[in-house]
Design brief:
Number of domains: 1
CATH architecture: Alpha-Beta Horseshoe
Strand order of the largest sheet: 1-2-3-4-5-6-7-8-9-10-11-12-13-14
Strand content: 15-25%
Number of helices: 4
CATH topology: Leucine-rich repeat, LRR (right-handed beta-alpha superhelix)
Shape: elongated
């Protein structure tokens, strides 16, 4: 039979009121279920963009082999999903709840929902989970294991408790964090930068490759991982010491703080940058080996503590630099 005739037959069958024909002898529950299925199909058509094939399961949840985008301004998802193999995007809408979101999904994005205060009801399994710039008050309900987790720019989020326990990249910058307790213990990249009320790193990750805690209000580096590849604690205006910070690092940035000493810095680095620490008068306690070393624009009075082995050394705009230059020693 040709595709044309199959299509016409299907259309004709859809026009038949099966409910009216069968109401005298069919189970009323089956009739009601058929009505619900028709309603679900209508909602999928009107409220979502679906790229791929969908299946309405026996429990009336929906599984999608493909991607789903929410296009409605309703405060709640109109259909309950079970699984989406691709991406589920319900960002930049008017959602107040994640109820109905798929329990399992590859990529999930509910960011920029200004009325969303909770992740409860959302996915339990996801590789990538994005919930930035909402109005989250808690991370309870987030999946426990993810590859990428973004919850940055949630201005009322004060705690990471309830969030993922395992992640490769975790970004919680520019929130209102008071503590890092609840953060995953092991992560490749961790960003808690621009947390203006964060004074301590205690409770945060213990194993990290790249750690970004710049532009906070840190009073100490205690709680930082002992070994990192990249460490950035710049622009912490009340940070006076590096003690408690990483002992091993390839690149270490601590400029524009209020350092009084370099004690606690790693002994060997590829790049070390402590410039613009206006109260730093000595390099003692700092790295002994470095490929690049920047200590310009400080208040250095001598070069005591300068690394014994260094390829590039910049100490311009310091009293000792001006002194040596006047003496013709540069």
């Amino acid at each position: 039979m040709s595709k044309k005739y199959k299509f016409l037959i299907r259309e004709a069958l859809e026009e038949i009121d099966l409910d009216a024909i069968s109401k005298d002898f069919e189970n009323p529950k089956k009739i009601e279920k058929r009505k619900i299925i028709r309603k679900i199909k209508e909602l999928l058509e009107n409220d979502f963009n679906i790229e791929g094939e969908y299946t309405i399961n026996d429990d009336l949840t929906v599984s999608v082999d493909g991607n789903v985008s929410w296009k409605s301004e309703k405060p709640k998802l109109s259909v309950t999903f079970l699984e989406v193999t691709g991406k589920f995007n319900c960002s930049s809408s008017n959602l107040e709840s994640l109820e109905g979101a798929p329990k399992k999904v590859k990529k999930f994005d509910c960011g920029y929902n200004k009325n969303l205060t909770s992740l409860e009801g959302g996915p339990e399994e996801s590789e990538e989970y994005r919930c930035p710039e909402c109005n989250l008050l808690s991370l309870e309900g987030a999946p426990k294991i993810v590859k990428i987790f973004y919850c940055y720019d949630n201005k009322n989020l004060t705690s990471l408790k309830g969030g993922p326990e395992e992640s490769e990249e975790y970004v919680c910058s520019n929130c209102n964090l008071l503590s890092l307790k609840g953060a995953p213990k092991k992560v490749k990249k961790f960003y808690c930068s621009d947390s203006k009320n964060l004074t301590s790193l205690e409770g945060g990750p213990e194993e990290v490759e790249g750690y970004y805690c710049n532009d906070c209000n840190l009073l100490s580096l205690k709680g930082a991982p002992k070994k990192v590849k990249y460490f950035d604690c710049i622009n912490n205006k009340n940070l006076t010491s590096l003690e408690g910070g990483p002992k091993e690092a390839e690149k270490y940035y601590c400029y524009n703080c209020n350092l009084l000493s370099l004690k606690g810095a790693p002994k060997k680095v590829k790049r070390f940058d402590c410039k613009y620490n206006k109260n730093l008068t000595s390099l003692e306690g700092g790295p002994e080996e470095a490929e690049e070393y920047y200590c310009n624009n400080c208040n250095l009075l001598s070069l005591e503590g300068k690394p014994k082995k260094v390829e590039y050394f910049n100490f311009t705009n310091n009293p000792i630099y001006d002194k040596l230059r006047k003496e013709g020693k540069l």
